[in-house]
Structures are given as structure tokens and as C-alpha cells.
Design a protein that fits this description.
The protein is of the alpha+beta class and 100 residues long. The chain has 4 helices and 5 strands. The longest helix is centred in the N-terminal third of the chain and has 12 residues.
Length: 100
């Protein structure tokens, strides 16, 4: 079962050596907490801050884990309402570059 700790560890590994993209994005993990990527400067960092971001993806921890491991398609999550994006939707494209 996915939880904020396992997702945080996975994202931290994925962010190693990534280039800044000038944006911030938060993941509201529906009751588990919030993770925030700050990619405005290098090194790109991850925190549990609820500071305002350029975009926020609201998603369950289980769906976030599936998105990260590739077993769930992000577009289908959005279309079925299992994930919601607020803020700048173009951030989603930068997110893919950071995490995949």
C-alpha cells in the first residue's frame, strides 16, 4: 500500500540530477499530506510544504504510486476525475520531464 513516505522516497530518487524548470508543483495526496517540488533552481528539491505552487495535483497516494511506476496513465486519471489539476495546466508537461 502506497503512503506519503514511499512516494516521497521515490520522487527524491527521481529528482537527483534533474535540471531546474523554473516552476513549483504540489501533490495533495488526499489526507496523506502534501509534497512540493521546487524546481525553480538547482538542486531541485522536494518538501512537505503547503506553500503555494504554480500547480497542484490532487490525487490519492495509491494513484500517485501507480502514476510513478507507470501502471496508471495520467491522462486517464484526469479524464475519470481520479486526479485534478489546479493552477497552470502546462506544468503537467514539465512534471513528466522531472519525474520520468
Amino acid at each position: 500500500m502506497a503512503n506519503i513516505d514511499s512516494i516521497e522516497a521515490d520522487i527524491i530518487k527521481r529528482l537527483e540530477g534533474r535540471k531546474a524548470v523554473g516552476k513549483t508543483i504540489s501533490f495533495d495526496l488526499k489526507g496523506e499530506g502534501i509534497l512540493r517540488i521546487d524546481a525553480r533552481a538547482e538542486p531541485v528539491t522536494l518538501s512537505r510544504s503547503d506553500e503555494k505552487s504554480d500547480a497542484t495535483l490532487t490525487i490519492s497516494a495509491e494513484d500517485m504510486a501507480g502514476l510513478l511506476d507507470g501502471s496508471i496513465n495520467g491522462q486517464s486519471l484526469m479524464m475519470t476525475g481520479r486526479a485534478k489539476m489546479s493552477g497552470n495546466p502546462m506544468i503537467a508537461m514539465k512534471l513528466r520531464d522531472l519525474l520520468m
